Amino acid sequence: IVSKTVLASDHAKVVLMALDAGQELSEHTAAMPAVIQLMEGQAEVTLGGDAHRLGGGAWVHMPPHLLHSVRAVTPTILLLTLFKNAGAAS
Predict the structure, then answer these.
(1) How far apart are CA 81 and CA 76, in angstroms?
(2) β-bridge partners, 17
(3) Residue 83 in contact with residue 32, Cβ under 8 Å?
(4) How far apart are CA 44 and CA 72, in angstroms?
């Protein structure tokens, strides 16, 4: 898995990731809301125990502390956006 942070600010962190077929991000949670955008490829994304097979152009929103995982079915490129201080007054 190759990853590169493309933005790190007070409000968000954006990470570009490339996974080869069969590679996965094992089940975990995040303390903040996040969005996964599949740029290309196909992946099985499991959200709270429900598996979804997604292709390029798909995106999912995840609330904080949702158990999730990603497994690349084909070579996959995705963009992960973590929203810091979500819900805080600006």
Answers:
(1) 16
(2) 3, 78
(3) yes
(4) 6
